[in-house]
Amino acid sequence: MHESLTLSLTGNSTVLTANYFPSLNVYEDSEIALLSLQTFNSFPNIINAINNRLKIEVIPSKRNKYKLHTFEFCLEEGCYEIEDINNKIAKELSQVNNNYGTQLAFSVRIDPVDFKTYIKCNGILQFNTPYSIAPVFGFKKIRCGPFHEARRSDKAVNLNTINSIKVLCNIAHGSFNNQLPSHSIYEFFPSGRTGTKVVQSPSNLIYYRLNKTDINLITVQLVDQNNNPIDNFNETLTVVLHIKRHGSHY
Q1: Fewer CB atoms near the end CB (10 Å): N or C, the chain?
Q2: Which of 227, 220, 235 is nearest to 42 (CA)?
Q3: Adjacent-strand bridge partners of 241
Q4: Is 236 helix (H, G, I), strand (E, B) or coil?
Q5: Shortest CA distance to 141 belongs to which of 149, 133, 204?
Q6: What confidence tens digit (pLDDT) does each residue in 56-94 have?
């Protein structure tokens, strides 16, 4: 019978599982807490297959007024800051201009005060097409432009659907998500930029009662505020748990 246990789980997924044989036997009044969590901020934001496309229509010049080009740029699902999106589109635009002799220009930046975006573009933005990135930028899904002077978005940038990351543990109980019982033992949100190291080491541990005394399987999973599974693009995740008897300091 164990009075105190430290369990470390590591893997390249947001679902970590450990099987124990023989089983770990603990007391009926045992409880569990998160000691630490380490990973990298690679949690995907709102850029996905339904809002990752930008179409720009070239305005015909006097020399080629009968020649019309429309170019579509598609972002891969992943983790982006506004600067990342701007740089990726700028790189692809450069290639388009070289290949077709066009002079398309596009830039997007974010206002750090109210998080609305500013867009400049010398072409026509077809924000009204399927899978448009317009809502991510805070713009309406309409055909607009050109914006030779920076045009301010109607709404704040919508770059992240994750408001909170919950750490679930299948052998813990005593927490609730709204009115429903939950296995959550910790919540956090990464404060650093995309790609930075995430280290969570609670200074005040919160312990939750166990729902079993014979432990042969532990599963830890990261989900969002709505209990939807989240991805981490195969970055290493390490979670350290502590099990002890209620009232014990060890």
Answers
A1: C
A2: 235
A3: 7, 34
A4: coil
A5: 133
A6: 999 876 655 545 689 999 998 877 889 999 999 999 999
Q: How far apart are the first and last CA of the chain?
A: 15
CA distances, 109 to each of 17, 86, 106, 127, 207 (Å)? 41, 8, 10, 17, 43
Q: Map out the domains of the chain with their CATH numbers.
A: 4-43+161-245 (2.60.120), 53-156 (no CATH)
Instruction: Indicate the pTM of the whole model.
Output: 0.75
56-62 long-range contacts, CB within 8 A, separation 24+? 56/93, 56/104, 56/106, 56/121, 56/123, 56/124, 56/125, 56/126, 57/123, 57/124, 57/125, 57/126, 58/102, 58/104, 58/123, 59/122, 59/123, 59/124, 59/146
Structure tokens at 87: 């740089």
- State the amino acid at position 124 in one-letter form: I
What is the Cα–Cα distance from 70 to 184, expressed in whole angstroms?
48
Using the structure block, give the residue that is written with the tokens 């002077």.
149
**3-class secondary-structure state, position 136:** helix
